[in-house]
Design a protein that fits this description.
By secondary structure, the chain is of the alpha/beta class. It contains ten helices and 15 strands. Helix content is 32%, strand content 24%.
Length: 339
């Protein structure tokens, strides 16, 4: 654990939180940052002195002194930068989504299989929310009985970002890849079950008269292992503050989290008071997963909070949802084992 890893961050929106996450670890330091916007880089560098600035991300990726490349660029650059980083023997921490389509996905799988010593993780940050961590423990201990239904919604609450921001300018944008993917990961992580098939439908009622060309709301029916069913709504048109809804039904109890609060219900009698959860929500920062990723690089016996396999499992389902939208039919999630 005496080695100091050198990291570099591409993209300085949420990427600034990545800098904090890497620098919070005693055995890691951010050496370089990159953004197309020189003014943004200058601004960030004032808060993080002694960091080298780069305009070209490939100068970072090819730098032999860099051990970890952290990718927080626009979604359409992720696959290219992930692949190039792996080819240059870098570990990769990437904002969701890992990629945008099945072709990119398969190329990344081929690269990581050829470099089994390298690790990929992704910023699936809802795992760090205390109430979801507690729910996972209760499900694991069977305290809610057998789980038979799980429902979630990613309520974006910031429609202006797809109407005026870079998301609406891309050749392709997916609200599932960009938002609902958090719920995909959260559901599989909490239940410990993989999603076998999906059937998705989308609408663009809220944005049909705008320049945004894609679905702004996608509803996906999920079939899990062992008879569990669920659904995820990626709702970028929601007239509601940004947040998430998660409901898990077990045979002995129900967990209900949403904009009006969070509680466990242990009885069907309306006169029985629920067990309310009042801890801070979301209660985490965008860089909080990074230290466990660094630990896993420094020590092969450490399991990161989000493993390479879990990154691919989650992206695999998100891609299947897009494929279901295109085919207008139920789609089986392909098998994906990276090593």
């Amino acid at each position: 654990m005496n080695k100091t890893l050198k990291a570099a961050v591409i993209g300085l929106g949420v990427g600034e939180k990545h800098i904090e996450g890497f620098n919070s670890h005693p055995n890691c330091i951010v050496k370089k940052i990159c953004d197309f916007n020189q003014e943004k880089m200058n601004e960030v560098s004032k808060r993080f002195p002694n960091i080298q600035l780069e305009n070209n991300p490939h100068n970072i990726i090819s730098d032999k002194d860099i051990d970890i490349v952290s990718i927080a660029s626009y979604d359409n650059y992720h696959a290219e930068q992930v692949i190039a980083s792996l080819q240059n023997n870098k570990h990769v921490f990437v904002e969701k989504p890992l990629c945008l389509n099945r072709l990119e996905f398969n190329k990344i799988i081929n690269e990581i299989r050829s470099k089994p010593n390298l690790k990929i993780s992704s910023n699936l940050i809802l795992r760090k929310t205390a109430r979801f961590e507690q729910l996972k423990q209760k499900v694991h201990k069977n305290q809610l009985g057998e789980t038979y239904l799980i429902e979630g919604s990613y309520d974006y609450g910031r429609i202006h970002k797809i109407l005026k921001g870079w998301r609406g300018e891309l050749p392709f944008y997916s609200v599932t890849h960009g938002g609902g993917i958090h719920l995909i990961d959260l559901m599989m992580w909490i239940t410990g079950k993989k999603i076998k098939s999906v059937y998705a439908k989308g609408t663009n009622v809220a944005t049909k008269k705008t320049k945004f060309k894609y679905y702004d709301c996608v509803d996906s029916l999920l079939t899990f292992e062992d008879g569990l069913t669920g659904n995820i709504i990626s709702n970028f048109a929601a007239v509601i503050p940004h947040g998430h809804r998660l409901v898990l039904h077990g045979t002995l109890g129900t967990f209900h989290h949403g904009p009006m609060g969070c509680a466990y219900f242990w009885d069907r009698d309306k006169n029985v008071v629920p067990e309310y959860i009042n801890d801070p929500y979301p209660g985490s920062s965008k860089g909080d997963i990074i230290p466990s990723f660094i630990d896993s690089i420094l020590n092969e016996n450490v399991i990161p909070m989000v493993s390479s396999q879990e990154v691919f499992d989650t992206m695999n389902v998100s891609l299947a949802i897009e494929e279901s939208l295109s085919k207008k039919e139920e789609v089986t999630v392909p098998c994906c084992i990276i090593n």
